[in-house]
Amino acid sequence: MEVREAPGLKQEALYRALFETTQDAVLIADAETGQILEANPAAERLFGYDRATLCRMHQEELHPAELAASYRKKFRRAVEAGTFRERGLIVQHADGSWIPVELSGQVLEVGGRKLIQGVFRDLRELQRLTETEALYRTLFETSLAGIYLLQDGRVVVVNPQAAAMFGYTPEEIVGRPVLSIVAEEDRELAAENIRRRLAGEVEEIRYRFRGLRKDGSRFWAEVRGRRIVYNGRPAILGTVLDIDEQVRAIEKLKQSEARYRRLFEHSVAGFYRTTVDGRILRVNPALARMLGYDDPSELEGRPTSILYVEEADRARFLETLRREGRLVNYEVRLRRKDGRVLWGLENVLLVQEPDGTECIEGTLIDVTELLEQRRRYLGLYAHTEDAIFWIRVTDDGRFLVEATNPSHQRKTGLTPEMLWNRPLNKILPPDIVAHVTGNYRRCLEAGHPIEYEETLDLPAGRRTWLTQLVPIPDPDGRIRLIAGIARDITELRRLQALLEEEGLFLEQLVSGASRKTLCERLCRVAERFIEGARASVWMYDEGRLHLCAAPELPESFRALFDGQLIGSNQGSLGEAAFSRRPVWVSDIKHDPRWGAFREQALAQGLRACWAVPFFGRKGELLGVLGLCFDQVRSPLPDEQAVVARLAHLAGVGMAKVRLREERERLARVVAQITEGVAITDTMGNVVWVNEAFTCLTGYRADEVLGKNIEHLLHGPETDRDTLRRMRLRLLRGRPAHARLYHYRKDGSGFWDEVHIDRLYDEQGQHIGYIGLMADVTELVEAERQLKAAKERAEEASRLKSAFLANMSHEIRTPLTGILGFAELLDEELETRQQEDLREFTHIIDRSARRLLTLLNDILDLSKIEANRLELKLQPTDVVDVARQAVQLMQPLAEEKGLKLELHAEENLTARADPNRLHQVLVNLLSNAIKFTDEGHVRVELGQKKGWVLLAVEDTGCGISPEFLPHLFEPFRQEHEGLTQKHQGVGLGLAIVKRLIDLMSGQITVQSEVGRGTRFEILLPSVEHGPAVS
Prior knowledge:
Elements: E1 4-5, H1 12-21, E2 25-30, E3 36-39, H2 41-47, H3 51-55, H4 68-81, E4 83-92, E5 98-110, E6 113-122, H5 124-142, E7 146-151, E8 154-158, H6 160-165, H7 170-173, H8 187-198, E9 204-212, E10 218-230, E11 233-242, H9 244-266, E12 270-275, E13 280-283, H10 285-290, H11 311-324, E14 326-335, E15 341-352, E16 358-366, H12 368-383, E17 387-393, E18 399-404, H13 406-412, H14 416-419, H15 430-446, E19 450-458, E20 461-473, E21 479-488, H16 490-510, H17 515-529, E22 534-541, E23 544-549, H18 555-561, E24 564-565, H19 571-579, E25 583-585, H20 598-603, E26 608-615, E27 621-629, H21 637-670, E28 676-680, E29 686-689, H22 691-697, H23 701-704, H24 709-713, H25 720-731, E30 736-743, E31 749-760, E32 766-775, H26 777-832, H27 835-865, E33 874-877, H28 878-895, E34 899-904, E35 909-912, H29 914-930, E36 936-944, E37 947-954, H30 988-998, E38 1002-1008, E39 1012-1020
Parallel strand pairs: 1-5, 34-36
Antiparallel strand pairs: 2-3, 2-6, 4-5, 5-6, 7-8, 7-11, 9-10, 10-11, 12-13, 12-16, 14-15, 15-16, 17-18, 17-21, 19-20, 20-21, 22-23, 22-27, 23-24, 25-26, 26-27, 28-29, 28-32, 30-31, 31-32, 33-35, 36-37, 37-39, 38-39
Helix pairs in contact: 16-17, 16-21, 17-21, 26-27, 27-30, 28-29, 29-30
GO molecular function: ATP binding; histidine phosphotransfer kinase activity; phosphorelay sensor kinase activity
Domain PAS: 11-82, 152-201, 256-293, 662-733
Protein name: histidine kinase
């Protein structure tokens, strides 16, 4: 190896300065031993030791122990080579860390001693830079984000990801105008953002645009870039991300959020969100409505305590939620706004927010109605009379009773302890097990409900059931449960049998069976349905019971009671008939109601006797149904019901028999009636006619039966309006009577006096019509002739009235002259004091005035009969009119020594003509005074049933009963001709009657010869009439 000589000492100072100030670490070591002899300050910094420490160390100690062996070899080779240079050696710092270095050096000979000088360059910074550059390049090449560098509007640098994003390779996209990869609608946006960054208006910007791929497709991209200087000119370095899926995901999220919002807003389930401490954050409309609020805002922000019935409910809810973390179908009780309780099921989560706070989110379903239905179901299950049971089907095909309701337990005698989880063959006899399990298998095979009837002997007794089995499938479709409902129809079947017997009884009744036959059948039915009974039927007549049927009772018993008087303590039969109530004697020996008959009954082996009376449709007693027994026996409730039903049937039957017998008697009577009689059904079809009908119409009975009677008798001259009115009356339930022109079989007509009425059965049901017919053709002809004669008489009367009216006017004129001259003559005679001659003038005056009154009456009557009298009807003070009439007639009454009285109520107002009413009262008072020689004449005014009453009463001679019907006829007097005692022609009362009629009033008379007469007038009242002054 070549060894250089040390430089001169003049250069030592220079070397020392370089040695001390160089940035690289320099060590000098013994080439033979490797002992470090010198170290510069840089070496102290590099290795972390001071110079003294380094000079005590061997060069091998500067390297990690695990590298010492390989570095020892390198040291020897360097000594041998004389110079060396190697990068990537590792030295160890005093703190144990490894430092990469580059080592260069040479071997020196100083004073005959070989030294080795090594210069160590710290490669850590270079290594960091290299690693960073490699990292950045790796990031650039492998980054998921696209990286780009833009300059002068073109793509300068781009990583593979950015190029692939737009469908290019890096080589294809570099150099392209940047706007060529931007969709046309976003190019203006992209250009403006590039301009702003290059102009320095913004340092960094981030925005979205629609990118344009090489194939023309578009996608959403997001760029983020900042302005830099590249190659001395401004450029933009940034990243680009493909956010198409993100944008679409956001859009989907928005749609999903909208859907969930709609679900939240419109769901029928209630949604809510609250704080843990009990503040309501949000509720949906359904929950608000559920709780009785119009809007969710009424609840949001308020404490949850307003919703809980009890605060303890909220505490239990929170405790359970914290323990479980979530609640599923948690039953809660809340209070509505109106105070009513709501039962609900909650599904709740305890949610932790990003800020660490907790809140409660949940849903609520209103199950108030469901719980109410469950309560009703349980009530029905517990209290229904139907037997309900559940049969569990095991995997091996066995049947186990899972549950039964109380009715099942009561009616079968099988308790839950007997049934629970036990095979049926351990509980029931083999034949019953085979029967019921066969039905269970039939239900399983059918797969749908089945229904059947069965009779079973169970611990509670023999019963007949109508059973329905319903298979209930599991969610997987397998049937592991059968629901059974069994209705006890034992009594129903018994009742059906009883109804069949009743039907046979009624068939015999309708077919006309005799009373004895019906009673015997009734006894047989009673004995069939009442075990051990011996039945009898007794008919009631005039206080006694008479035997009708007793097929199983001994003759001696029949004789004992047949014809016996009813009464108390007369045995069960007599007591029942007497009290008209059922009598249930369970022990004849100790019952006081058997009295004198006890020993005879016991001697015949009878120990108990029940008796129930039966009645007709109108409640009349018809008889008694009796049941005797050979042993002491009290009736069960259902037996009492059967006996009562049979007694009712006996009442119906015996009433029908009695009605039939009465009809037979009636038919015999009707057959003798001379008038035609026809009976029809409700449609008018003939059911029965008598012989007189056949004689009247010419039809035989067999020709009319079943035919409509209108078709038989009506013809073209039959008045349809009269028929319509008759039908209407009959439909209203009223009898109809009319004369109709009917036709016989041979076509000849006759006038028929028809009376028709509805027919009813004993229950009051309408069953048809009965009609009576009489040929009145001759009578009609006579009436026609009489009517013609009446019309001629009325015409003559009218002519007479007209004549009298004219004559009255002609006579009144000279009478007025006579009265006037008689008055003048009387005055002249009075002046001359010739009193004897004045008597003649008085005679002339009275006669003329009498004749004038007669003429006025005739004139009034003629006006009335000619319908020319006009009345002024108005509210009239009746008391005032009566007072005036009494005052006018008072002198005449005093002249005869009579007391004329007026008795009147106040405020009596009638609708009348006051002048004509005054005329009526004066006429009645005049007659009363005329026919009364002593006593009084009284006028009474009052009210009677809403009418105004005016009564004139006297104590005169009275009117004979024979004359009363003619009292108001014109020109009629009780005493006429030479026997007439009082003056008059008999017109006054006729006029009174007609005037009262014209005022819509009524006049009546009551009289007794020798006792007096009372006339009563009733006039229409006017309410609230004027007060009488």
